[in-house]
Design brief:
This protein has about 110 residues and is largely without helices or strands. It is built from two helices and four strands, in the order E-E-H-H-E-E.
Length: about 110
Amino acid sequence: PTVTATEAGTMTVFYPVYGEGEGFCTNDPPADHGLSSLDGIVTSATNAECCTKHFSWQKSGFCFSQMANPPTQAPTVTATEGGTMTVFYPVYGEGEGFCANDPPTDHGL
């Protein structure tokens, strides 16, 4: 892509930066990381896509941790009404068992 960004975080694509720590993705101008251009570098539309494409091998999750709003390993949920949680969990011991997104207290947990 032809990109002429001059301020950090202003490019419309993300690209991998190797050789600075464990590696991460950025949308800073290439010159900020010692690159003259992005020719031949595979770019991505989002930071998460870039991290997945180029650094999926990182056990530490360093690339994702460098994001402005990094994803979490486990969601934080504080639901108080039935069906309002953003995750489902298994409920055993009530008939054949099922998955629910009600507050765990609804099922004695």
